[in-house]
Design goal:
Layout (H helix, E strand, L loop, with lengths): L1 H14 L8 E9 L2 E11 L15 E11 L4 E3 L1
Antiparallel strand pairs: 1-2, 2-3, 3-4
C-alpha cells in the first residue's frame, strides 16, 4: 500500500512539474560501456495523507528515481 501511495504521489506531481510541493532534484548523465545513462532523482517531504505512511515511524521523506538508458544502436530503455 505504501508503494502505491508513493507512486501515485509522484505521478501526480510530475504532471505539473512539482508546482504544488517542494522537491529536491538531482540529475546525472554518464557515458559508459557503449551507452548513455540519464538519471533523475526526486525527494519530497512525507505527505500527511500518504496511505500507510503512519506505520513507518521516523519516515520524513519519500523519493523516486528515473533511469533512461540509450544504447549505442539507438535503442532506448526507460526504467
Amino acid at each position: 500500500m505504501l508503494h502505491e501511495g508513493i507512486k501515485a504521489f509522484f505521478l501526480a506531481h510530475l504532471e505539473d512539474d512539482f508546482a504544488r510541493v517542494s522537491v529536491v532534484e538531482h540529475h546525472t548523465k554518464e557515458h559508459t560501456h557503449g551507452r548513455t545513462d540519464e538519471r533523475s532523482y526526486y525527494l519530497c517531504e512525507l505527505p500527511e495523507d500518504l496511505p500507510d505512511g503512519s506505520r513507518w515511524k521516523g519516515l520524513h521523506a519519500i523519493g523516486m528515481s528515473i533511469n533512461n538508458t540509450q544504447r549505442r544502436k539507438g535503442d532506448e530503455i526507460a526504467i
